[in-house]
């Protein structure tokens, strides 16, 4: 297990707003049914000693995180859930009270094994996942932090940066922008602008996911040919509404989008029922995708070079989910993550490899 070296709370800089409240919309509130946080791990091949890590890297990470929070105040806030049902849930930031929990740790685990592409025991990744503080009961509401972070040193080998957040904080695109902003500020030492690369064509997404889906179905239990299979994925609609929402808009949904939903815009038609429909699919044969071909967190460079490995720990235990992101090493390629029981994983790997050999 990782040894905890330090636990602290990192606030936004002193010049940030004194208070900020962001009411949750119907889209955000529906995500509260999904209680487990989204968990991501970024592994960096960056050999350094423990003294250098504690004296130079950790302090710089805290400083750059504070600067980044000045641009992303909701990340430092708490989810406020009123006991009075007439009041709306919200994400609340209050200067002097709100901060992000950051854990600094050290481990003797095998870095090279963890960043490999072979089948690995999913349980070994949890020591690098940050824990969000439990719900606190106040007189008129309950509150819980929306984000927690953990940075773990592999002495002489590398660093892992772990993220855990409630989905109501923002969608995947928003969190990717936060991570890239933190990395950019940490590397460059200031609030520098950065650009994201263009996404891959849809055809790459279709080819990759359809092949993985087919292999999963073949490796699972046998069912009748007429049993339906469902495919669930998300899409970024910021640019598709009128007027469009800025690409860097951090909330999962805005009032403008809600208004368009009420008008039954074609892009969002039936959106108010999407999450309830997904929830009804529990137990039904389906496949969901966490991530997107447009997401490339390997470019989140804290000054240690590109990340060697991204692991989306949230899919562990979700037998109907896979993770998807841009490939770190293959131009135009995609990386797919999957967590299965050992027997099914071996069957899936054999079917997957055999299919590629037949191309």
UniProtKB/TrEMBL annotation:
One Gene Ontology term of the molecular function aspect: acyltransferase activity, transferring groups other than amino-acyl groups
UniProt keyword list: Acyltransferase, Transferase
A Pfam cross-reference name: Transferase
Protein known as: Malonyl-coenzyme:anthocyanin 5-O-glucoside-6'''-O-malonyltransferase
Protein's organism: Sesamum radiatum (Black benniseed)
């Amino acid at each position: 297990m990782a040894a905890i070296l330090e636990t602290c709370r990192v606030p936004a800089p002193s010049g940030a707003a004194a208070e900020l409240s962001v009411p949750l919309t119907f889209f955000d509130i529906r995500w509260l049914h999904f209680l487990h946080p989204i968990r991501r791990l970024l592994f960096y091949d960056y050999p350094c000693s423990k003294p250098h890590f504690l004296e130079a890297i950790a302090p710089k990470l805290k400083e750059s995180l504070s600067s980044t929070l000045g641009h992303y105040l909701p990340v430092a806030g708490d989810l406020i859930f009123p006991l009075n049902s007439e009041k709306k849930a919200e994400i609340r930031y209050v200067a002097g009270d709100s901060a992000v929990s950051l854990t600094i740790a050290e481990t003797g685990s095998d870095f090279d094994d963890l960043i490999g592409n072979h089948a690995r025991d999913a349980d070994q990744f949890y020591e690098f996942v940050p824990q969000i503080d439990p719900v606190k009961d106040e007189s008129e509401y309950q509150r819980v932090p929306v984000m927690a972070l953990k940075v773990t040193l592999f002495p002489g080998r590398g660093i892992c940066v772990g993220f855990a957040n409630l989905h109501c904080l923002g969608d995947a695109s928003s969190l990717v922008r936060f991570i890239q902003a933190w990395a950019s500020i940490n590397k460059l030492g200031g609030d520098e602008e950065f650009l994201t690369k263009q996404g891959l064509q849809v055809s790459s997404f279709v080819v990759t996911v359809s092949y993985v889906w087919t292999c999963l179905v073949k490796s699972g239990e046998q069912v009748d040919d007429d049993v339906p299979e469902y495919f669930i994925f998300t899409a970024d609609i910021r640019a598709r509404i009128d007027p469009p929402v800025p690409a860097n808009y951090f909330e999962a949904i805005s009032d403008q989008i809600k208004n368009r939903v009420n008008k039954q815009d074609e892009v969002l038609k039936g959106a108010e029922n999407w999450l309830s429909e997904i929830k009804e699919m529990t137990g039904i044969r389906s496949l969901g995708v966490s991530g997107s071909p447009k997401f490339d967190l390997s470019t989140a460079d804290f000054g240690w070079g590109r990340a060697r490995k991204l692991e989306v720990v949230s899919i562990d235990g979700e037998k109907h989910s896979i993770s998807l992101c841009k490939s770190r090493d293959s131009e135009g390629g995609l990386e797919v993550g999957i967590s299965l029981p050992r027997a099914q994983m071996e069957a899936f790997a054999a079917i997957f490899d055999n299919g590629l050999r037949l191309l």
